Amino acid sequence: MFGWEFPPHILGGLGTASYGLTKGMSLQNDMEITFVIPKPHGDEDQSFLKIIGACNVPIVWKENSWDYVNQRIGKIMHPDEYFHLRNGIKYDFNRIYTNDLGCVDFSGRYPDNLIEEISNYEAVASVLAHQMNFDIIHSHDWLTYPAGVFAKQISGKPLVIHVHATDFDRSRGQVNPTVYGIEKRGMDAADHIMTVSNLTRKIVIEKYHQDPRKVTTVHNAVEPLPDVDTFTKTVRKEKVVTFLGRITMQKGPEYFVEAAYHVLKKTKDVRFVMAGSGDMMHAMIDLAAKRGITDRFHFTGFLKGRQVHEMLAESDVYIMPSVSEPFGISPLEAMQVGTPSIISKQSGCAEILTHAIKTDYWDIDAMADAIYSIVKNPAMFESLSKLGLEEVNNIKWQDAGLKVRAIYESVM
Amino acid sequence: MAGCRTESSCHLRERYVIYILLIYILQLCQTEHVICNLKLKKNMRNLCFYFQIHLPFRLKRYRFFDIGNDHYYFDDFQIGDEIRHFVEQSYLPANKAILEMIRSSNGKFKCSFAISGITLEQFELYAPEAIDSFKELAATGNVEFLAEPYAHSLASVFDANEFERQVKLHSNKIQALFGKKPSTFYNSELIYSDEIGELVSKMGYKIMLIDEAKHIMGWKSPNFIYSHSYLPKLKLAVRNYKLSDDIAFHFVDFSLTAEKFIGWISAFPQDEQIVNIGMGYEVFGITQSAYTGIFDFLKALPYHAMEQQIGFVLPAELSKKYESAGSLSVPYPMSWVGNDKDLTPWTGNDLQQEALNKLYAVGERVRLCKDKQLLLDWLILQSTDHFRYMSHKDAYRSYYDSAYEAFMNYMNVLADFLSRVEAQYPSTIENEELNELLKTINRQEEEIEALELVIEKLKSKTKKRVVKK
């Protein structure tokens, strides 16, 4: 498998999904997974799969002693493996800047020279494809499609790509031609395409012109929280309604502010929280001020790790008015701690949730109505909370893993 | 020649005797046939058909910011549209078919209708021809209209006083429209329990229709008349739910014909005398569209039934014609919906409970009001449908995306309704106190009248005195 992120060092939903899916698949005893990421930190959970760091795979032949290699990367990769992989260098990648071991220093993030990192990652894939034994190649998200395609060309093994998002979601239709090119090439070369929702499946079929027979939806799931009982809801007079995520165009934060304005016209015992950061944060502060609701509308800035779940647990309503969301795992996380969710119909998770309120992202009235109803009717809150928790506990990665397995078998 | 003549006359006489004998034998046969027939008629198996007609007032999209500003809750366009659809596709053609059946069977065919008051009001507003069509059926005398709570509500379970009030309201409405007070009781969605039976019996009804539920009937056959568990006066007619569902839902997959259907019934054991078949009237033309041949099936029923010596009865005749085969004990309310035949489609989850509790909490107060529109809204908001839409599992014919949306919309409407009740009688005053106040107000009028009478008397006395002087 080629991926870009793996917990605990993650930047978005991709890492969480990769972890959950591989963990769910590892429950099938006859499956062995090797997961390639650009830059592991050494503290990843390797109990159920093997992680290879692309930054430790040589792509240019450099003579080094066993001891030197052991001293340099011994913590993360065994020197024998390094030498074994070195034998897989069949092409001249001297044009690429490499370090003393002949490896590329990946950032493992989303830097400005992302396109360059993607092509370096492709070079790493060629070495791995020559030296490793595998039956199937699985590429997560567009960053790793070129690597997957190259590995397929070298090994002749089937390629399955996993579409976690498309550029149409990220840009509200203003696609970047380079990104589109990479995505399209990957999809064309793939033997099968998995999408995280029917919404994404439709985009793949319509905008990337793929054969519908080749595209299957495998909905994401959510990892059970081990310390779910440690999150508590403080009893307050005032109810808390939370938006949590990147404050960008894709997430529709302005609809949240407008809905808050509608609710506050009618009742005063509600507070609204916008957690996260992003390029539209300042515009949102301005908008809240313009509507005159800043006394009840709060910004927390970026939250991470445990803070996220604490915030979700303390809220009475979680709202995700995304304009376009391939899946959107955060409502499931909110439901895990018993917080009712309001989600836009334009998000993939709406396809599998029944105990959540669904509205169109632009339908501020409906959103405000739903907030008001949950805040004012204890029965509504209780129902959504109780049945939502039950529902989300039944959405398991193991089942997603079985679907993936069936797809593998169909292409092998 | 003469010998020949006598011979022929002899022959004629012989023939004459034979003819007479033949006629005599034929006559004998006929009388015997009649006797046989009479015997059969006495033990004739009967079919009892009843149809439920109910359409709720559809609520419009009512947002929370409308609460207190907008007191009109209904989506007139959708209501009108739906009523027209049901009337044109189902009720009118089915009525026409039934009228034809009554005429062509020489009045042998009989059936009954449970039309909710709410629906009758919608007919009056949007489809008066439906009322005329039912009046035409009523005029044949072969059609019975059943009593039920006016709003097709759950009042029988939640509010006994309201239940009684609605039944009276409905009974008056039926009498005003069709000229006869109903005498058979049909509770909304066939909801029944011993307690409800007691209420119904107190109101003077002798027979009530209920559904066949496994946990109630056990091994018993629905094809007998039963009675209330401790009030033997109230007889219970049990719906044969299998045969009813065969028409309503399996008409196409069983490729059902009237002959087949009547065949099943005539194959029942000899002592099972009465088969009750009940369903929504919209089965004809909507659940089973006209092209499936459902109307032809209906029309062919009387012919095949009579061929098999099966008759038709009205529910009202059941209590006189049949003796009870035993009593049925129903401690918990049951209905005719689903496999469990309980109240969960309307009261099964927290949302429904909350909505029903909030609604029926003000029952007593609303009944004190005089505001006509308020009283009408009160009835409309009680229809079972609103609560069924809030079911997670069984939101039959819901026009909402989810149970939650149904709940949100209903609760917004209810909040406005409650604020109107509150405006009339603030909740700070206790019900009993309010009653007392109202009584004194009403008494005041009486007292004033009485006092006025005294004044007049005194006046006339003084006048007389003046005249005498």
Key traits:
heterodimer, A: 412 residues, alpha/beta, six-stranded parallel sheet, four-stranded parallel sheet, 15 helices, 42% helix, 13% strand, elongated, B: 469 residues, five-stranded parallel sheet, five-stranded mixed sheet, 11% strand
Textual characterization of the structure:
The complex is a heterodimer of chains A (412) and B (469). Chain A has 412 residues and is an alpha/beta fold. Chain A is built from 15 helices and twelve strands. Chain A has helices at 13-25, 66-73, 79-86, 114-131, 145-155, 167-171, 177-189, 198-207, 253-266, 281-291, 306-314, 330-336, 364-376, 378-393, 397-411, and strands spanning 34-37, 50-53, 137-140, 159-163, 192-195, 215-217, 239-244, 270-275, 297-301, 317-320, 341-344, 357-359. In chain A, strand 10 (317-320), helix 12 (330-336) and strand 11 form a beta-alpha-beta unit. The model of chain A has no long low-confidence stretch (mean pLDDT 92). Residues 34-41 of chain B have low confidence and may be disordered. In chain B, helix 2 crosses helix 3 (117-126), helix 2 packs parallel to helix 4 (128-140) and helix 10 (258-266) packs across helix 11. In chain B, the strands form three sheets. In chain B, strands 1, 2, 3, 8 and 11 form a five-stranded parallel beta sheet that branches. A five-stranded mixed beta sheet of chain B has the order 4-5-7-6-12. In chain B, strands 9-10 form a two-stranded parallel sheet. Chains A and B meet through helix 9, helix 13 and helix 14 of A and helix 14 and helix 18 of B.
